[in-house]
């Protein structure tokens, strides 16, 4: 088994004419790599009708509908994160409750509001009540504001996680750009946060440092935008970890984070 | 025969590297079936004068010359840099490296123009690195700019004998240079693949088709980057066996002739 905990798909609202091919290429390459579960989100209209990281309610609804359809079309292969924008709190809570009831297995928070903002508390509470983890977009050591997003770093993210010890959180794309060493320092000892290894970054030393900082049991394999770098990290892990630990990163840890039986 | 044109030995000033020794490089090469590597001396990119770094590089690779070929750095802003270029040629280097960003040189300024011309006289390609690390993760003191596409275009237009091997470029960079050159000029440039995205975006597959498979060669960026990335790209690309052979060494050999 190989579970990609950080995948994305697109819809006709995405600002790319090749959206259908792009979705298909992810599935095709995933098959080639042996991915047995794509746990995915659709980030609204990816900027076409509302900003990628500040999706409108209408774009969120459309994206989550489209993902539900993909999950149904590829049952047992594609799984859904419910995308929400915490600035629309009531809508976000309703979306999470209804989507999880319909089979989604997690919540995706991008960068519409800083992670340590109290406005995220109802989201974290709802995720806990529904028994699903929150995958949160993270800028590894944000030293300034970046355009187009209200990005959070691990310090801000962990503030949220500490306020909600009963909720499971996933720090997104450790290899997704930024200073991963900073994030790993923050995550030591924060037991309700798992680390998603995805991202295009392939720094030597990153995987060893992640193992040392949080332990193999809190690492989750993922790819995000680039499947090739995901495969590279997996192969490298196979060269430094014993098979049982590789299996934990491939799927065992994810099976423990997501609802019981989600990937049967 | 797989040749990795983008490797280094030596420490990096802004991040700890687990094992930047020749032995570490060879272990990774063995693990992935890489036969030969073109090796730069990483700290030399930051030295005021890279010449002592070259001495160290030659000493480090000397026991492994059957597999590790030294690619010394030259700083064309220094007095008598031509001596360093000649020494590189005499040492059997397959190319020389230059770091205009780290050396505070204009990417296509007079020093760079002079180096490319002189290297052509020695039949040595000039190896240019677009970036050593992603801009988003740089150390606060690491303010060297990425190499701009305009610089590569300008250098490629200089003269027929110029040979530029460009590493760590992404799709947009490759396209902006390649389609901004005449076909003759474009043949002076060879692109290393390690920073070009694979699936699902499939940037590598696209540029192999649009720019031409003959314009690309294999590299990894070790020990800054996991070498598995470049190999995984090729595996997922699943090119015809002949194309894989071209990408992993034959293109490089033909381009140097």
Q: Let me know the average pLDDT of chain A.
A: 97
Order of helices and strands of chain B: EHEHEHEHEHEHHEHEHH
The first-to-last residue Cα distance of chain A is 11 Å
Shape of chain A: globular
Number of helices of chain B: 10
Low-confidence stretches of chain A: none
CATH homolog superfamily of chain B? Metal-dependent hydrolases
Distance between the amino and carboxyl termini of chain B: 17 Å
The total of helices of chain A stands at 9
CATH class assignment of chain A: Alpha Beta
Instruction: Please outline the major beta sheet of chain B.
Output: 5 strands, parallel
| Biggest interface between chains | A-B, 36 and 30 residues
What is the CATH architecture term of chain B?
Alpha-Beta Barrel
Q: pLDDT under 50 segments of chain B (min length 5)?
A: none
Helix content of chain B: 25-40%
Q: What share of the residues of chain A does DSSP label as strand, in percent?
A: 5-15%
**Structural class estimated from helices and strands of chain B:** alpha/beta
Reported by name, the CATH topology of chain A is: TIM Barrel
Radius of gyration of chain B: 17 Å
Mean pLDDT of chain B: 97
Question: How would you describe this structure in keywords?
Answer:
heterodimer; A: 264 residues; alpha/beta; TIM Barrel; eight-stranded parallel beta sheet; B: 257 residues; five-stranded parallel beta sheet; three-stranded parallel beta sheet; 10 helices; globular
